[in-house]
Each structure stands twice: as structure tokens, then as C-alpha cells.
Amino acid sequence: MTSEPLTPDTVLSQERELVLPSLSNDDAVDLGLELLRLARERALPVLIEVRRGPQVLFRAALPGVVPDNDVWVAGKTRVVERYGHATLYHRLVEEESGVSFTERNGLDFADYRAHGGGFPLAVAGTGVVGVAVVSGLPQREDHALVVEALRAHLASRG
């Protein structure tokens, strides 16, 4: 996984870099399979989900995943869907400002989890149409896994 320093600007740069040409059902499954391949190679205890709009197009739970991971995936998904940015972006803004995401936005932590691992899936010329989420690792590692998989997914498409 990447060792680049993470700041809010770095995450926004990743979002601009990782724009997809399309997000068909097949594209979503391919991205999910890339995440799954990376997680299996490393024996990572993660829950993976790829959505387009409200529809789950890929979901996999590897050994070590617990029911709490479902809660985290749902909360991270809501943050990305509401704001259109990676959950780690919001977390890093929180760390820099000293004001929690919950305080800043008036949203209940039980429903909105601004912790790394949720990443917007943007399509060129359209904008954010979905979300890829990983839960099970420390938040920066969840985020890094999604970024790595998106880079590999884009590279495989030329």
C-alpha cells in the first residue's frame, strides 16, 4: 500500500486522479474483485462494498469480519453519498481543525462515520455516482486499499 503523506489536499488530489470512464455493473464487479484480490493476497479481515447509487453491485466479507463492520460500511457510505468526498478527507479535516465531523455537521455518529475507507466513485463528465467502501483495518489502511484498487482498476483499462 502507499506511503504518501495524507492531508485533506492529498485526498482531494486522489479523488481527482481516480475518476472512472464508466461504472457499469461489470465495472463495479471488476473493481470489487480487484479489492477482493488484494485483500485475499494479504489475508486482510475486511468487508468490501461497491455501490452505484443505492444499489449494491459487489459485496464480500473475508474471514475476520464482524457484524460491526456492516455498521461502519453503512456509516461511511452515508458520508460519501451526502458530501461526495472520501471519508478520510472528512476525518483529516476534523484532525486539522479540532472540530469533530459530528459537531461540524450536526449528524449522529451512529449514522455517519467519517473514518477512512469510503471513497467516491466519480465518472468522467458525470460526477460522483457511487462509492467503494472497505472496513476492517485501521482507517488509513482501509482508505489506502481502496485507492490502490482503483489505481489498478484504471490501469487495467489503459
From TrEMBL:
InterPro entries: PduO/GlcC-like (IPR005624), PduO/GlcC-like_sf (IPR038084), YBR137W-like (IPR010371). It holds the Pfam family HbpS-like. It comes from the Bacteria. HAMAP family: UPF0303. Belongs to the UPF0303 family. NCBIfam families: PRK02487.1-5. This is UPF0303 protein EV189_2217. It comes from Motilibacter rhizosphaerae. The lineage of its organism: Bacteria, Bacillati, Actinomycetota, Actinomycetes, Motilibacterales.
